[in-house]
Amino acid sequence: MMEILSNTYPDQWINVSEEFRGSEGGIWLDAECGVTDRNGKFLFDYYNQDLAKREFGVIEHLAKWAERAGWYFEWNDPGTIFLWEM
């Protein structure tokens, strides 16, 4: 999952969750780094809860892709989001 995200969004900061307070098994992402999709929309926007285009602040197509792969996004704070396996 980390490799796919890194290849798809090379400017997205990604690390293992163990580096964040020792939480094991997830992926830690910087939600404020300003990475956009190919349409110029921010991947993450904690304050934008437009459910027509986002799922709890995550751009819809990315949230759906993660869900199909068996993962889900979870916010820690407005600048920190994690991916966890279901």
What does it look like?
By secondary structure, the protein is α+β, with helices and mostly antiparallel strands. It has one domain (2-85). The chain has helices at residues 2-8, 60-68, and strands spanning 14-16, 27-30, 54-55, 58-59, 71-77, 80-85. A four-stranded antiparallel β-sheet has the order 1-2-6-5. β3 (54-55) and β4 (58-59) form a beta hairpin. The protein is globular, with a radius of gyration of 12 Å. It starts with a helix and ends with a strand.
Q: How would you summarize what this structure contains?
A:
Helix content is 19%, strand content 28%. It contains two helices and six strands; from the N terminus they run αββββαββ. The strands form two sheets. A four-stranded antiparallel sheet has the order 1-2-6-5. It has a two-stranded antiparallel sheet with strand order 3-4.
